[in-house]
Write a structure and sequence with these properties.
The protein is mostly helical and 344 residues long. 63% of the residues lie in helices and 1% in strands. The longest helix has 31 residues.
């Protein structure tokens, strides 16, 4: 039977859904959603802002860690099968899983929390960009919790295959905590005989690379990265390092490492933290590396005057101080041109 709800579309109208993103680019219109009720506005207003931010950070880390360790699980479990089948996984697939997971996490959760998803990024933003210090512990705890929950879900999904792999390894007298063992699905472990100094330097430079790309994407004066492209660029920075140095042992994020490592210790023993004394490298190195990379960008690459000109910042001492700076540092022709822009 026909109802107004079924007949609400007119010719050339589009139904609600993903078509909404096209309404500014085509001549067709989208049926407007129902009106927002006061009850909904009151509910949204009553939500604690800090809690929403924490949940968004945890959700974002969950969204990026779960596909990544899922790809690792597919690769590890199939490679360990009696047939040695590796068609379901590779380093390339793992890199893409993390890259797309990061992009999806930023798209989904960054509008609420800012999209840090890493304690290293949170600390660097606190140091250089004025992120409130009192929020740092909440963000870091939420990020680690998101990684922890992603690892728990992964263990639930793959529990049967992991139990089978454990049984085979135990029968053969092989360890459960090692690179290529079940625990390595959740967090990184070095290869036997690897120098921890070598692993540290690899981790440090890979994290610096990623941190530099993040800071370039966050620079509003950078004309080569649009806000809509930044999530994919940041994700591909992680993927590039995974493709390049994944076989040399990488973590690249305290939340991605520590949360799943706790789960690995629960299921496979405390050796998850003590194996070859690697865990401090995987957990902590991303923080100083990101601070070094962001400091390099802040002191060498950033042009704060361009940021001010694009309207994304203001001079701490007001427009008069800005004009004095321009007077001291710009030629007469350049000063007149810039002065006219600021007056307009």
């Amino acid at each position: 039977m026909s109802t107004p709800e079924l007949n609400r579309l007119r010719t050339h109208d589009l139904e609600l859904g993903t078509t909404e993103v096209t309404q500014k680019h085509v001549t067709r219109t989208v049926v407007p959603p129902r009106r927002v009720s006061q009850r909904r506005l009151d509910f949204e207003h009553s939500r604690p802002r800090w809690l929403r931010e924490c949940i968004a950070e945890a959700t974002g880390v969950f969204m990026y860690v779960l596909p990544g360790i899922g790809a690792i699980a597919s690769f590890t479990l199939n490679a360990a099968s009696p047939l040695g089948v590796t068609a379901f996984g590779s380093i390339f697939a793992i890199g893409f899983a993390f890259a797309l997971g990061i992009a999806f996490a930023i798209i989904t959760c960054a509008p609420t929390s800012g999209g840090h998803f890493s304690p290293a990024v949170t600390i660097a933003l606190c140091v250089w960009q004025g992120f409130p210090l009192k929020k740092v512990p909440y963000y870091i705890f939420s990020q680690i919790f998101g990684g922890f929950m992603a690892a728990l879900v992964l263990m639930g999904i793959y529990h049967q295959q992991i139990d089978e792999m454990k049984a085979v390894l135990l029968a053969a007298g092989q360890p459960l905590v090692a690179n290529g063992a079940p625990a390595s699905i959740l967090c990184s472990f070095p290869n036997p005989g690897q120098s921890m100094g070598y692993v540290f330097l690899t981790e440090f430079f890979a994290d610096c690379f990623v941190g530099l790309l993040i800071w370039a994407c966050l620079d509003p004066a950078n004309p080569f990265v649009s806000p809509s492209l930044a999530p994919l660029v940041i994700g591909l920075a992680y993927a590039a390092m995974a493709w390049a140095f994944g076989d040399a042992t990488l973590s690249m994020n305290m939340a991605r490492d520590l949360g799943p490592r706790i789960v690995a210790a629960i299921f496979f023993g405390k050796e998850a933290f003590s194996y070859m004394n690697y865990s401090p490298i995987g957990i902590l190195v991303s923080i100083p590396a990101t601070l070094v990379a962001s400091a390099f960008y802040e002191f060498v690459m950033r042009d704060s005057l361009l940021v001010i000109e694009t309207g994304h910042a203001v001079h701490a001492d007001g427009d008069e101080a800005l004009m004095r700076h321009i007077t001291r540092t710009t030629t007469v022709e350049g000063f007149e041109e810039r002065a006219g822009e600021y007056k307009s």
